[in-house]
Design a protein that fits this description.
Elements (H helix, E strand, L loop, with lengths): L1 E4 L2 E9 L2 H15 L8 E5 L13 E13 L6 E21 L6 H9 L1 E16 L8 H15 L4 E7 L3 H10 L3 E4 L2 E6 L11 E6 L1 H12 L9 H5 L4 E9 L11 H6 L5 E8 L5 E5 L3 H16 L16 E11 L3 H18 L2 E8 L20 E7 L29
Parallel strand pairs: 6-7, 14-15
Antiparallel strand pairs: 1-2, 2-4, 3-13, 4-5, 5-6, 7-16, 8-16, 9-15, 10-11, 11-12, 12-14
Organism: Penstemon smallii
Keywords: Acyltransferase, Transferase
Protein name: N-acetyltransferase domain-containing protein
Length: 423
């Protein structure tokens, strides 16, 4: 893009992010974009000096910057200014199912034919699109998206998707009207504050911490046919940011000492169980609520003082969110049986207590809007988002498996798998 006037020529160049020379400039643009409406609360994100932190744990990723190059106007040297950026990553995920192709005879063959098998696709994800407020409505955002999509196609991605707030009209308009994306899924972001008191454990539930070699087959068995399930789940559960995978079972079944192992669990599972994993976002980024009045801050502080002074009352105190705070993200929430919701609630209690020990301000998760286990996830409505909007686009016509058809036109299922590497 070229802008001319008064002897000045300005060219916007989109190129790959250079950590050595771009980091500080990118942070400046991020800070400008984080400023909320005057007089209203806004959420500020600090990426702790690593602008790529939200994608660097994915199998393939890139960050692009839009650089404004100004020439002329009596200036001997050219002037360069970063005015926008975008991040993207690619992974292989489940996009649907197909009938199994049994290779045996008799009963075994019939069982294999009855079980659905996952259909995988190479999926790209867009996040962190930012354009400096002083350079908006110049087509820079569209230019960034198109260049990123070109990288997706070059690397074999079949679909691209992005997430945004449902009421972010500028973002929704850019992607749906100018970039060819369609509204796809509306999951819920659920946020629970970390109180000054601990959550009492459920005496009817035992919680067992699984090692990564046990968590992987459990997730593959339970989630392999769930939308957005990453085929490299082993990389996720073995990642240094994963604080653990936890399995909740009935008290009378077994505990950490009598745990028989994952193979025996598969052979004879209890009538109800639940599982989730905890991702440490605290070491990647911090959040801060800005724009709060002194009265609001004073009321929040009062609730914390009361909670610390009278912990046995288990008062729902407001955490210190008006200065930088960390958070944990819960992912891989699943379970089976009539008491699965109760067991998820117990696991969320454990996650809360772990977050308290590690100095976090909130615990967050994201699930499908119709997720049956949603009833067991404690959260505050005022901190949560009932409808996060995911938009999707088909990048090409040639697919590795055509049994799903066009994924963008498929109806939503009850569950989705939210990858913590991209939250």
């Amino acid at each position: 893009m070229v802008v001319e006037g008064g002897g000045v020529v300005a060219v916007v160049v989109v190129r790959e992010y250079d950590a050595k020379k771009d980091c500080k400039k990118v942070e400046e643009v991020e800070n400008k974009c984080e400023v909320g409406p005057s007089g209203k609360l806004s959420l500020y994100t600090d990426l702790l000096g690593d602008p790529i932190c939200r994608v660097r744990h994915s199998p393939a990723y890139i960050m692009l910057v839009a650089e404004l190059v100004v020439l002329g106007g009596g200036v001997d040297k050219e002037r360069r200014e970063i005015v926008g950026m975008i991040r993207g990553c690619i992974k292989t995920v489940t996009c649907g199912t197909k009938n199994g192709n049994g290779n045996g005879n008799g009963k075994d063959c019939a069982t294999k034919l009855a079980l659905p098998l996952p259909v995988y696709t190479k999926l790209a994800y867009i996040l962190g699109l930012r354009v400096s407020p002083s350079h908006r409505r110049m087509g820079i955002g569209l230019q960034l998206v198109r260049r990123l999509e070109a990288w997706f196609v070059e690397n074999g991605a079949e679909y691209s998707y992005m997430a945004t707030e449902n009421d972010n009209q500028a973002s929704v308009k850019l992607f749906t009207q100018k970039c060819g994306y369609s509204k796809f899924r509306t999951p819920s972001i659920l946020v629970q504050p970390v109180f000054a008191h601990r959550i009492r454990p459920d005496s009817r539930v035992n919680i067992i911490k699984l090692n990564p070699t046990e968590a992987e087959p459990l997730y593959r068995r339970h989630f392999s046919t769930t939308e957005f399930f990453p085929r490299d789940i082993d990389s996720v559960v073995k990642n240094k940011l994963n604080l653990g995978t936890f399995l909740a079972v009935p008290k009378q079944s077994y505990d950490a000492v009598s745990w028989p192992g994952i193979d025996d669990f598969f052979t004879n599972p209890p009538d109800s169980w639940a599982v989730l994993s905890i991702w440490n976002c605290k070491d990647v980024m911090t959040l801060e609520v800005r724009g709060a009045s002194r009265v609001r801050k004073a009321l929040a502080k009062t609730t914390r003082v009361m909670d610390r002074a009278l912990p046995w009352l288990h008062l729902p105190s407001v955490p210190q969110v008006f200065r930088p705070f960390g958070f944990h993200f819960l992912y891989g929430l699943g379970g089976e049986g009539p008491n699965a919701v109760k067991f998820i609630r117990a696991l969320c209690g454990l996650a809360h207590n772990l977050a308290k020990e590690r100095g976090c301000g909130v615990v967050a998760t994201e699930v499908a809007s119709r997720e049956p286990l949603k009833l067991g996830i404690p959260h505050w409505k005022s901190l949560s988002c009932a409808e996060d909007l995911w938009c999707i686009k088909r990048l090409g016509q040639d697919y590795s498996d055509g049994s799903v058809g066009d994924w963008t036109k498929s109806p939503p299922g009850l569950s989705i798998f939210v990858d913590p590497r991209e939250f």
